[in-house]
Amino acid sequence: MKNISISSIILFLAIQHIQAQVWTLPENGYYISASFSTATYTQAYDSANINYSLYPVEIEDLSLQLQVQYGITDKITVSAKIPYEVQAAKYIGKQQLDSAGAYIEGELAYLSNIEAGVIYKFRNAKPVISTSLFIETNTQDHNFLNGLATGYDAWSFKPGIGAGYTINKFWFSAYTAADIKTNNYSSGILANGEAGYKLIDEIYFALFVAGRRSFENGDYCSCYLTNSGLFFNDQSYIAYTGKAGFLFNEFSLNFGYTGAYPGRNIPGDPVFTVGFAYKKEK
């Protein structure tokens, strides 16, 4: 199957969940991160996993996210993520647009779906095992005229379970959760896993794999998003992210490249991400 890269929409479904669902912080510990990515793409995949061109439209997308976590106790950590999307649909055709075609171009900037939840660690011995519940709010905006959207027009509830294991300079984690959506969107199952290696105290490398399988039990129509491929209903995909990071005491600088195999109802183009984080454990 042909290998592609995916847009920053899928990036924030995948890479931004790396920190959240398995590991907890110690009591009064906290973690703050800010990340951003950019993507410019002209293709998408439909419900039959067939690639189609967005030409003569080109979508530019800038995704920003703030994440905050706090350890209430050694076993309970609360987490919140606030994403923000800045999008533009641009005409790249060779013919000059007339007044009737001016609707093709447009811009949209607003919050995406804010997520908040709690992680409970019920096994502290190796492997660490935790359960979690995250709620994703319907905080989004859309531009029907240009086919742009900053998030899903639905609430999501994500009960999940995860496990983590460390040995010497290696760490491993796995997580799975239900993705229960409202507003007649299809629910699904989420899963991800990560393997990492700390080369020295200041440098690490990791591989993260994430996927979603739709239950195809909702008939919300994403028809107006066809021109952009953004935030479709019924999405299924498998994504991978290669990561590298530099650690400076409590500060870290992280880089990632996310790719995927062709999925269903997703846009597709290369994405790089950069993140900054501060973590205080005691």
Textual characterization of the structure:
The protein has one helix and 19 strands. Strand 13 (170-181) and strand 14 (188-200) form a beta hairpin. It has one helix at residues 8-14; strands spanning 4-5, 30-41, 43-45, 51-53, 57-71, 76-91, 106-111, 115-123, 128-136, 142-143, 148-149, 156-167, 170-181, 188-200, 203-214, 236-248, 251-264, 266-267, 271-280. It has a single domain (4-280), classed as Porin, CATH 2.40.160. Helices cover 2% and strands 59% of the residues. With 282 residues, the protein is mainly β. The strands form three sheets. It has a twelve-stranded antiparallel barrel.
Q: What are the SSEs and their pairings?
A:
Layout: E1 4-5, H1 8-14, E2 30-41, E3 43-45, E4 51-53, E5 57-71, E6 76-91, E7 106-111, E8 115-123, E9 128-136, E10 142-143, E11 148-149, E12 156-167, E13 170-181, E14 188-200, E15 203-214, E16 236-248, E17 251-264, E18 266-267, E19 271-280
Antiparallel strand pairs: 1-17, 2-5, 2-19, 3-4, 3-18, 5-6, 6-7, 6-8, 8-9, 9-12, 10-11, 12-13, 13-14, 14-15, 15-16, 16-17, 17-19
